Amino acid sequence: MEKKLSKWGFNNGDLKEKSLFSIRSVLEMLMENLKEDDDNRSKIHLGRGDPSAIPCFRTSSAAEDAIYSAVKSAKFNGYAPAVGLYSTRRSIAEYLSHDLPHQLSPDDIFLAPGANQAIEVVMSVLARPGANILLSRPGYPFYEARAACSNLEVRHFDLLPEKGWEVDLESVEALVDDNTIAIVIINPGNPCGNVFTSEHLQEIAETAKKLGILVIADEVYSHLCFESSIAFAFQIAECLQDYLEYSANPATIVQGAVPHLLEKTSKDFFSNINNILKEAVEAFYTKVQEIPCLTCPYKPEGAMCVMIKLNLSFLEGINDDMEFCTKLAHEESVIILPGKTSSFFVAQEGICTHS
Questions:
Q1: Do 297 and 186 share a domain, yes or no?
Q2: Are 139 and 277 in contact (CB under 8 A)?
Q3: Are residues 245 and 123 in the same domain?
Q4: Can you give the residue range of the structural domain that contains 325?
């Protein structure tokens, strides 16, 4: 049977290996280890990067009203242009330009159904035979999987926990060759919860310019920055339009809601969320210091995740981070993610938990 499958090229070993430790596949495994419903303990799910189901992080009323109005208007029932509705791109350009030294044009904006789909588009546009791309370690695992799909070689540069998870720029320079197309910078960081300073961002930009490589800026959590560091302005690769002509488009109704959503969502909505996250981080960080087998190398400043070091010498019958997470789910009904899901293969000690 395997020979027949290999004939058609279905057995992509690299992609299969990446998907084995994807966040979704690991979450499914951990959920299977939760005890049955007759267990009276609450199930605490800290493994999701999307907390919208939690009441205190509910979607803003402005977003709900915007979607409702778009549906009721019946103006957005058909297909949108491949790059997105002009009115939507214009509102996004104006919104993003508030934090930039220059004015963005609607032509600078390309829409995708979601962040993962945007990653897919960028990877596909940049891919060429023999090319490689630089990804952080720890990092967001979807980049690994998409690189495998696009036949891009992945080269890992380290983030330095002792320096607030800054990029190890020396390792970046050592990795680059003539086939390196880009470096991915996630800020605020996922899964480390770090936020780069403006000085470090400038160093990254200067290094990329010197090496002649693109910077892919992933800023999904740009509004979740609750300390003094800076999340830099959104950038997007050019020359995407041709690919978008034959890829999936965002729902037209959602596009129709965006201008109203951007205009009506108050700053208080984001500041309230950041205050909740900051309180959670302070409580979490304090508690971790009291647990001998856990070490938090750097207190998070943004996003909603943190990397924790697990000292296995304090534990009996646990051999790695995956086993720790599995037993925690089964015995305490708490879901966190092992470091394996974040490309953190340096040791079996990394645990990513969403706070």
A1: no
A2: no
A3: yes
A4: 12-57+267-354
pLDDT digits (tens, 9 = 90+) for 199-244: 999 999 999 999 999 999 999 888 888 776 655 444 443 456 666 6
For residue 281, the surrounding DSSP H or E stretch is helix 267-288
**285 domain-assigned:** yes
User: Which CATH number fits the domain that encloses residue 198?
Assistant: 3.40.640.10
Rounded Cα–Cα distance for residues 186 and 192 (Å):
10
In the three-class reduction of DSSP (H, G, I as helix; E, B as strand; rest coil), residue 77 is classed as coil
Residue 7 lies in a domain: no
Distance between CA atoms of residues 126 and 133, nearest Å: 9
3-state secondary structure of 321: helix
Residue with tokens 């495994």: 29
The answer to whether residue 5 is domain-embedded is no
* pLDDT score at 134: 98
Asked if the structure places residue 337 within a domain, the reply is yes
| pTM for the whole structure | 0.84
Which of 240, 264, 288 is the last residue before a domain boundary? 264
Q: List CB contacts of 300: < 8 A, sequence separation 6 or more.
A: 192, 193, 194, 281, 285, 306, 355
**C-alpha to C-alpha distance for 220 and 190, rounded to whole angstroms:** 9
Helix axes 13-20, 142-149, angle to 10 degrees: 170
pLDDT digits (tens, 9 = 90+) for 241-287: 666 665 667 889 999 999 999 999 998 999 999 999 999 999 999 99
Question: CB-side exposure of 201: number of CA atoms within 13 Å?
Answer: 20
234 with 328, same domain: the answer is no
Token pair recorded at residue 217: 């800026």
Regarding whether 122 and 46 lie in a shared domain, the answer is no
| Structural element, H or E, at residue 254 | helix 252-264
Examine the fold and report which residue of 264, 295, 329 is the final residue of a domain before the chain moves on: 264
Do 22 and 141 touch, CB atoms closer than 8 A? yes
- Cα first-last separation, the chain: 44
Rounded to the nearest 5°, which phi and psi values hold at 6?
Answer: -65, -30
29's tokens: 């495994």
Looking up tokens 């009996």, which residue turns up?
A: 316
